[in-house]
Specification:
415 residues; alpha/beta; six-stranded parallel β-sheet; 14 helices; 41% helix
């Protein structure tokens, strides 16, 4: 099928998904998990082909080692793929839930109900395990999905997609074409032009990819272009906590979008030099007072700066942060509360590593991505972030004219 046909059939599927029971969704997901488990060797074989090709690209300098690492599927990743689907099965169905009910007048009842977004366009790089993760979240939330992975993982992406599709096609009563995969760069361009047919685009990959998508579509985009995260060390911070948190936030996974890039230290913190030494001993390169603070190093490199006050730290963060995740280390509850209220980021933490900003660690089961948008979903986006809402109003013959002419009055009673 070409992209136009895929989008048409995905829109047909989204209507059927909106009324699908939680039991049918879970049945489909269990079939997918079992089919992946039963076809692991087929996936490994496909992945080996991609790795052989990617290895040549690395040698030619066309692919980074980090991307190569994300491309590789091993027993641990395969186990996590399957477990992730079963974890989603255990989660409550987020759609068709009543948020609140209000009696506008006698016999005139308004309800706010959660519902799927519709058709999701997911554009991602390298990581083929994204296919099962996103597909399971889309199925559970009642959304149709069109996936476009990186060309370096075409064989693996195709194998996983075909295994998922086979399982869904064998699930009686589950809509056809709910999960789809496209391959070419032209498909991406066409997807970005399909406002009104694709309801939300979610990019997962490099800053370059995310920025390109944000700048080339009128479709709403859920994502973040960069992860410039901060830690502010207050003057009263415990040194051991500070050391452990800062090292974890920088070294546990340096290329992650929630790794710390700048550490701000109050000028009266007594252990500044000890902190520097601890970071160096952990293999971290320190850049003191760099010329630019809006840099995402994605490496064991961190910017270090002293500030005069809590307010100065907050001002710096709000100016240079990508509004992803920022943390304060302090014993002062008032300062913590001020920091968490005034820092304008999707995640604001106290006395913990920024690396906790993650859908899995939040207990979402999995995530489709992390959003720095100020829309319906912010931070790590799991099942709930794939639903919006509609208002359902039921009555018994009421007309607005009666209320305009004061023949009737609204009660507005929550029930």
């Amino acid at each position: 099928m070409n992209i136009d046909e895929i989008v048409k059939f995905a829109n047909d599927a989204k209507i059927k998904l909106m009324d699908l029971s939680a039991e049918k969704k879970n049945e489909a997901l269990e079939n997918v998990a079992k089919n992946i488990e039963n076809n692991k060797e087929k996936i490994y074989e496909a992945n080996k082909k991609d790795l052989d090709y990617a290895s040549k690209l690395v040698d030619e300098g066309k692919l980074t080692r980090a991307t190569f690492g994300r491309l590789k599927l091993d027993e641990n990743k395969m186990r996590d793929m399957v477990k992730g689907i079963y974890d989603v099965i255990k989660l409550e169905d987020p759609s068709n839930k009543t948020v609140w009910t209000r009696e506008l007048d006698e016999g005139l009842i308004l309800r706010k109900i959660t519902c799927p977004i519709g058709v999701l366009g997911i554009i991602f790089e390298a990581r083929p395990d994204v296919i099962s993760q996103i597909s399971s979240l889309a199925i559970k939330s009642g959304n149709a999905v069109i996936l476009k992975g990186g060309s370096e993982a075409n064989n693996t992406n195709t194998a996983i997609f075909e295994i998922i599709k086979e399982a869904l096609d064998k699930t009686e009563g589950f809509p056809k074409n709910a999960v789809n995969l496209v391959f070419s760069h032209d498909d991406i361009k066409k997807m970005l032009d399909m406002e009104g047919f694709i309801d939300l685009i979610i990019p997962r990959g490099s800053n370059k990819l995310v920025k390109f998508i944000q700048e080339n579509t009128k479709i709403p985009v859920l994502g973040h272009a960069s992860g410039i995260c901060h830690i502010f060390v207050n003057k009263d911070a415990d040194f051991e906590d500070t050391k452990n948190i800062c090292i974890d936030a920088k070294t546990q996974y340096p290329t992650a979008c929630n790794a710390v890039e700048t550490i701000l230290v109050h000028k009266d913190f007594e252990h500044y030099n000890e902190l520097k030494k601890a970071l160096c001993n952990a293999g971290v390169e320190i850049i003191e007072n760099p010329e630019k603070f809006d840099v995402e190093y994605s490496d064991t490199i961190v910017a270090l700066k002293t500030v005069d006050s809590l307010d100065d730290a907050i001002e710096h963060i709000n100016k240079y942060s990508s509004h992803h995740t920022d943390s304060i280390i302090s014993k002062n509850e008032k300062d913590i509360e001020t920091f968490m209220n005034k820092v304008d980021s999707a995640g604001v933490f106290s006395n913990v590593s920024t690396r906790f900003s993650d859908g899995f660690r939040y207990g979402f089961g999995a995530e489709v991505g992390i959003s720095t948008n100020k829309t319906h979903a912010r931070g790590p986006v799991g099942l709930d972030g794939l639903c919006i809402y509609k208002y359902k109003l039921t009555g018994s013959g009421q007309i607005v004219d009666d209320y305009v002419k004061n023949k009737k009055t609204f009660k507005y009673r929550n029930i």
